[in-house]
Amino acid sequence: MPPSKSHAQPFMLKIFTLTLLAGGLLLGTASPGECRSIAKQSIADAVKTNFFQWFHFTEKERKKEPGEKTAVSFTTGMGGHTVQLVVTLDQQDRITDMILALPEGFVHDAKYKPFACDIAKSFIQTAVPDADAPQVQDLVNDISFRGATWTGFQHLEAKTTYGKNKDKPVEIQHDVSFLKEGSGPIKKGDTAWVGFSSVPKLKDKPTSGFLAYVGESQKFEEKLADDSLLRIESKEMGGKKYVVLIVNTH
Fold first, then answer.
1. Residues 132, 146: contact at Cβ < 8 Å?
2. pLDDT over 80 (residue 242)
3. Coil, strand or helix: which one is 117?
4. Domain for residue 231, yes or no?
5. Could you give the CA distance from residue 138 to residue 35 in angstroms, rounded to a whole number?
6. Minimal CA–CA distance to 31: which of 54, 1, 6, 10?
7. Which helix (H) or strand (E) holds 108?
8. Beta carbons of 16 and 29 less than 8 angstroms apart
9. What is the pLDDT of residues 163-178, one digit of tens each?
10. Residue whose C-alpha is closest to residue 182's, from 32, 25, 34, 20
11. What is the dihedral sign for C-alpha 167, 172, 178, 184?
12. Which of 1, 117, 193, 236 has a 20 to 30 A CA-CA distance from 101?
């Protein structure tokens, strides 16, 4: 059965490499669902959600902060890039603030850029309260799709070695759709997502938040409807440059 024609925002549920019979294409599969907000949830419940589980965030440290709060640090990574996540908890261990730090090289690396975008937009969906989701939807769409090309349906012939099939490649032959970074047809060396049935129509001009995300402006800040705050900025930490996304919901 072909995918539905909805504009649901997929997020990466698994990252694996498919070696095309033609050679050399890095692919990721996309889920048909969205990341759901965990704002003001307990940290015990939050770490069980798709955002933490799928991106393999691992807890590294807990520190007491002023005001009887606790900062919990997590990390994950891909392609030699380490992504940092800090979640601030209140006295009841409920989430009040979330900070995501993406290495600048990860955001702009042609090979891994789509994966950085996927973590970033999933973070926004996860950290922003449900009531504010419509206010950030254009930003989520920009991070997900601006600068990428939906190819429509193409025939894929590939061999994959993931999961239980690590020692025995399995051949795949399907008519599938791709979302690839950049323009033009898919070619060797491209990075693409599999399973998009369509993409939403983007606004003529990119959002201010997207310009901050890609480094075309230094900082973006927006007060959301329920007094939450979303900020995106470029920042140097420990001698390295990062794109930092911050959501305050206290």
1. no
2. yes
3. helix
4. yes
5. 16
6. 10
7. helix 104-108
8. yes
9. 455 566 656 566 666 6
10. 25
11. positive
12. 193
Reading phi first (left if > 0) and then psi (alpha if -120 to 50, else beta), residue 189 is in left
Mean pLDDT, to the nearest integer, of 237-247? 95
| All residues at 6 or more sequence positions from 64 whose CB lies less than 8 Å from its CB, including other chains | 70
Helix (H), strand (E), coil (C) string for 133-194:
HHHHHHHHHHHHHCCEEEEEEEEEEEEECCHHHCCCCEEEEEEEEEEEECCCCCCCCCEEEE
Confidence at residue 4, expressed as pLDDT on a 0 to 100 scale: 33
61: tokens are 């440290």
Contacts of 110 (CB under 8 A, 6+ apart): 181, 182, 191
DSSP characters over 184-247: SS--TT-EEEE--S--PPPPSS--HHHHHHTTSSSEEEEE-TTS-EEEEEEEEETTEEEEEEEE
What is the per-residue pLDDT for 1?
A: 30
CB 129 within 8 A of CB 141: no
- Structural tokens at position 103: 């290495």
Residue 155 lies in a domain: yes
Is the residue at 107 inside a domain?
yes
CA-nearest of 78, 76, 161 to 115 is 78
Identify whether 6 is part of a domain.
no
Partners of 76 in beta bridges: 83
pTM: 0.80
Q: How far apart are CA 178 and CA 105, in angstroms?
A: 24
Domain count of the chain?
Answer: 1
Structural domain span for residue 109: 12-248
Residue found under tokens 């990341």:
35
